[in-house]
Amino acid sequence: MSWNGRFNHESGVNQMGRNVGDFPLEQLREYKPELTGRPPDFQAFWAGEKVKMESLRPNVKAARREYPVQSVEVSDLLFESWNGTPLNGIFVKPAGAEECPVLVCFHGYTGSCGLAADYLKWTALGAAVYSFDVRGQGSSPDYARYENGSRITGWMLNGILDHENYYYTNAYRDVILQLQWTRSQEALVTPSSFGVMGSSQGGGLALAAAGLGDGVDYMVSDWPFMTHFERAMDIALQGPYMEVVNYFKWNDPQGATTDKVKETLSYIDSLHFCDSITCPALMAVGLEDNVTPPSTVFAAFNHLGSVEKEIEVYPQFTHEMNGFHEEKKLAFVAKQLNKAGRDLT
């Protein structure tokens, strides 16, 4: 039985793409599926998790290091999260800044918090950047214990039968605590404005962060993962969604756990946060992307509650780095920082 059969969701044909069977662009721009899969207690569940995180004071160690670019200061971070998991991170800020715009950047699947050089374009705009490893990725461990195993490599199936102790539920808790800390008096700089950003897994985390975090002023989410699972499981051909598809093939070929898996994923589906996001937003999609298919990205964009929102469409791009879009992101962030500066005067 296919995922499509389990969820009774129709597929379409993309008249522009060659690698992914998806809707034509005109239909993508109008694609706004009903949120029938969002749990009734979705808002209450995450509100409760935020309250739990607010009661914690994470132990964060920052070690300043020498860096050849004298216009910035770089620190290595060790962030002890809610269950004691030590997450490595990096902090880069304009030299001498005590108050400035702050940007939290989330990395892609199997990635890491990155290098200082990755963030110099944002410090050139006057912003400070925090980035942390997602638990279990980069060079950071994951201290959570998961009850199930599987035959599939990756993180998607850790705790897949228990939404309260699922891998990404735990990662979202990390994000909530990180956002709270970066806006606290213990943070390394006082934020004059606050943005979140990421691509792929990072794009899904940016959507969740904008929906979960208080006081997010703007968001950038490129071809987000963990978005609109019901559609993604039907048409994705590569990448992390396939871990769940292959779980059913190798661990549950007759779909006995389908409802439980669907329930777990519904609590971390970033699509379910989008209608509560009201800050200015920039998104991007590649129409040849068979890892995070275009319809899943447009579903998130069309559900955003933001009045000021843009989506950049790249017909020939797959799931890949896009230098053209980096220029668009620079312009968008610069606009948001200039607007914030005017608001402060």
UniProtKB/TrEMBL annotation:
Substrate binds at residue 109. The lineage of its organism: Bacteria, Bacillati, Bacillota, Bacilli, Bacillales. PANTHER family: CEPHALOSPORIN-C DEACETYLASE (PTHR40111:SF1). It comes from [Bacillus] enclensis. This is Cephalosporin-C deacetylase. One of its GO terms (molecular function) is carboxylic ester hydrolase activity. GO terms for biological process: polysaccharide metabolic process. Residues 21-334 form the Acetyl xylan esterase domain. InterPro entries: AB_hydrolase_fold, AXE1_dom, CE7. Pfam families: AXE1. The active site is at residues 200, 289, 319. Gene3D superfamilies: alpha/beta hydrolase.
